[in-house]
Specification:
With about 725 residues, the chain is α/β, with parallel strands linked by helices. The chain has five domains: about 100 residues, PriA, 3(prime) DNA-binding domain (GIY-YIG endonuclease), CATH 3.40.1440.60; about 60 residues; about 190 residues, P-loop containing nucleotide triphosphate hydrolases (Rossmann fold, 3-Layer(aba) Sandwich), CATH 3.40.50.300; about 180 residues, Rossmann fold; about 90 residues, Ribosomal protein S10 (Alpha-Beta Plaits). It is about 30% helix and about 25% strand. The chain has a seven-stranded parallel β-sheet, sandwiched between helices. A six-stranded parallel β-sheet has the order 18-28-27-19-26-25, with helices on both faces. Bound molecules: adenosine-5'-diphosphate (ADP) and zinc ion (ZN) (2 copies). One zinc ion (ZN) binds next to loops. One zinc ion binds next to loops.
Amino acid sequence: MTAHSLIRVAINVPLRKSFDYLPPPDGQYAYALPGCRVRVPFGNKSVIGIILEIHNRQSDFELKAVTELLDTEPILDDKLLELLNWASHYYHHPVGEVIAAALPAMVRQGKDITQETDTFWQIKTDLRGIEADLQRAPKQRMLYEIIAARHGCYESSLKAMFQSPQPSLKILQKKGLIVRSKPTGNQQSISIKTPDFGLNTAQAAALKAIISADKTFHSHLLYGVTGSGKTEVYLHASQHFLEQGKQVLILVPEIGLTPQLLESFQQRFQIGITQLHSGLSNGERKRAWLDSRSGNARIVIGTRSAVFTPMFNPGLIIVDEEHDGSFKQMEGFRYSARDIAIKRAAMLNLPILLGSATPSLESLHNTYQSKSRLLTLPERAANAIHPQIFRLDMRNQKLEGGLTRTTINAITEELKQGGQVLLFLNRRGYAPSLICSDCGWVAECQRCDIRMTVHKRVQRLRCHVCSHEKPLPGQCPNCDSHNLINIGQGTERLEEFLGRRFPDTGVLRIDRDTTRRKNTFEKMIRSIRSGQQKILLGTQMIAKGHHFPQVGTVIILNADYGIYGLDFRAQEHMAQILTQVAGRAGRASKTGKVYIQTRHPEHPFFISLEKLGYEQFARELSHIRKKTSMPPFSYLALLRAEANNKNLVEKFMQYTTNILRTIPANGIDILGPSMAPLERKAGHFHMQILINARRRQALHHLLNQAITQLDTSKISRRVRWSIDIDPYDLY
Ligand code: ADP
Ligand code: ZN
Ligand code: ZN
């Protein structure tokens, strides 16, 4: 490094630029590499940044020096840094914030990350003869068995599998069953518990496709109905790469789906597995991140931001439930973890496997364009039969608790046979509105243009948009009448009704309100699978990839809102939910039944979906998208702005529109500015401009120029504005 070298640093601030510094004090020069953390003066503060590059270009400013170099080797390797830089450009988001999103809090805060010494446990005595000793201590026994099967194991790996294993390990040590020792070296060899069935033809074909070119970038879409054995393909494909000493990264859309997948992988592989999601403490997250980086963890299962986990020797990336909107971050750095995963696989030259029972139109389109290979699992693996579907006309029916007579009979019938019933209602709370029957007053949020939801058990009114809440009024605030009535039905109300109607059965409600506490969701899923709970009721939390083999009857309430949804993805989304929920029925050996309550039983949406099946139906939706020039046939960016002053947002948006319209661009439509579908949210006025481009290049070119102008304008500092590339919805 010459004396003139400058260090360019990314800092976690909402500015679309990076910052130059002079090198750190003597002695630290040699180690200053891209990907290392540094402490730098910024304004009148001292902050942590990441070195992006070391360069010799002139600077026009008087520069300060790096205060301290925090790492002697990069914490982010070149490839990961390249990916983050790419993401910053692609999403037009400040690189410092992009990198911050990729790091666990403790790493971001500059904490020391040299690996703490990790205890390595080995067995001392053979289990024979001491079985009685461990009979009543299942956790100790499990720990012992894992340590034995792996010929020794790091405590950190055990921590990734069990909650606080230390007390049990201490007891095992006291009993003389295990000892601390040096790693024997063969702990990385994997022991595999093979299942007692082989892959069926479709699974075997899929596996072959995935592993046939195992060292080059290939994108595969594994499309298989629920229960068709996708997880089994994930397991076999992973095995192939693990046996080569490589790592596997698995992304799931929601934290609730990690335990299930974790269990499948733990049962199959006695190997370092770690998980990364928001349910971990900061320390656990750092640990998992380091384990993945060092190669100590061979399998990493995580939610959205795990796509950025550094890996020592990556071999395969799997994205489960790839169609799920939760892969899209909707605030701040608005990225799609699925799309970044594909980019990462391409940069690393690895295969990527996207799995779903209801693939997104984007991913299906990629297969039609031969950018991705379609691997289909057409049948249910364990020979279960496809469910029967009944549409129930709700018009002119006497409803009881929102249910038709046929629906209630279906529940009764299923319960009589000892099976489980699952009711799906995508609306939590007791009732979506509260009105006064005397004067017509409606409970509305003061800060949003929306009605407040009644939550009866806690006696509160809550806004589901801004979370504002207040006590449930006993009388009308307008006319003092006591005739306040609940309109409509949420999960809480349905639970109350079912509890009354089937008093001997018990009802389990699963929604955001009943699963707030840590681990309750997991416990509920387990109690469903054990068959204890007979009537299950929930929002789309239960529509996602869970295995409930004893559910014989599925009931879908309020299916109509999705058909008439305004968003361009509304029908795709509804088709996915219906197909997923229906897929919960009759997974084991008996035919499942699905009842859909609707006021539009003859709507082409239902008829086509049933007649054509999901894939053909998706093709039809695709034709509509093509005709209307919407994704995947065009590329969207949504520019949003908000302020507490309506005039100000309007002025900013007019200004922005003028900029956009004066930049020469081909094949681009600029729609707006318009008020956002929900004009007032949390006291702020929201407006948006939709940019629709035939070519992605043109879109980015336009945005780059517009942003440069916006960033230097005064008015842009008086509103909150953002850019959403490939928006998931237009709200
Ligand atoms: P998906 O992930 O597509 O929902 P899974 O892989 O979990 O499906 O498989 C569903 C069930 O079928 C599981 O209980 C699994 O053990 C079983 N299964 C998977 N593949 C086979 C196979 N080839 N033969 C028999 N059973 C299978
Ligand atoms: Zn009133
Ligand atoms: Zn509100």
